[in-house]
Amino acid sequence: MYCQIDSGSLKGHAYKKFLYMLLIAGVFAVMASVYYSMWSSVPSTIMIKAGVDQELDFRVPASGELYKEAVEASSGASIRANRQKSLHVDLAKPVTVKAAQVDQYKLYLKLFGMIPLKEVDVEVIQDIKLRPAGIPIGIYVKTRGVLVVGIGEFEGEEGQTYSPGKYVFQTGDYILEINDQEINAKRELIDLVSHSEGQEMVFQVQRGEAVINVKAKPELNKNGEYKMGIWVRDNAQGVGTMTYIDENGGFGALGHGINDIDTSTLMTLSKGTLYHTEIIGITRGTIGSPGELTGFIEYDDNNIMGDITDNTPKGIFGVCTSDTRQKAGYDYIPIGLKQEIKKGKAQIICSLGGETEIYDIEVIDINLENDNINRGIVLKITDPDLLSVTGGIVQGMSGSPIIQDGRLIGAVTHVLVQDPAKGYGIFIEEMLVH
Question: E strands, 152-259, where?
Fold first, then answer.
């Protein structure tokens, strides 16, 4: 007695099983895609203006409770947070909210009232007005300590190869002290190393958030000079655009931080200065090659426009001189928060030499939830005059204020290298929280 197995039937069964699995995977993929779309449609932080009716129109089938987190001290050293129910919010339809004063809330959203979606920080900020600038600025910044931008090697007196800094320093380190002596300039480091007589030296180094001590011993090069085999920098210069001036004379500019050209790390500053600059040349942007504004900067006390106090991923910030405030050519206008921005016509303000001008652009996309804070707004230059001169967005235009419906909504930050007419901007609210 024997039985015969139909191989074709087995193959058909396996094929059906594969199709079922494929179908299930496809359904899950669609569900995940829809969930992510809903998740990214609501920002993790929503800002609203105190004392102003604000419409939230996200059109997402999600709802939740808006809470104020009241922190109370209990008996003993422990602290507990009390959730105080404030308001039920349904984002499936436009919602108008109003807060009387600056405060902070939490909004816990669920899709269809059941599936956890995300926790949203709701921040109530002052309803302020800013003066859009668009002024070209010359930037000079001095690092805190001396920045290590590279580790190298050199030839010794007898032809041997030395690299004393290898495995001791890292690119991006800031050398703050040598043998307990504070280092403020590259020349100070070079002098101490050259007079070390080959003795081991103790370096205080800032590496990321940590400050550590490392030891290294200089070696003689073929010219009989003591060297450490590291490349260092103590300052940076450039041209950009001022975004705004507030009522106290504070300014914001660039819309992104000043990063070291070699290490791509955000530079830690000891001080910085803005100088008057004149645009003397324009390199037109083309596909694959970003253009550039060339400015003439005279580093003279009579040309100072302000002091830089902060260099952050959201821009540079500081205080203007009174003369700079007086020369700003535009009136104070309201700010536009991210949920108030819409696709369509807008303008930017910048200078291509001479006075600042207003140029037409189009907001083509709004990324309410983006890991890169400098790319919340996607824009396209549409002004024929600007396109004819620059080809679109060029280096030096970073910080150009973006205006829509009479409100300051952001600043230009980056160009799309493959399409210089298009680029990115940062939401103005990001620049206000630094």
Answer: 154-155, 161-162, 174-178, 181-182, 201-207, 210-216, 219-220, 226-227, 230-245, 250-253
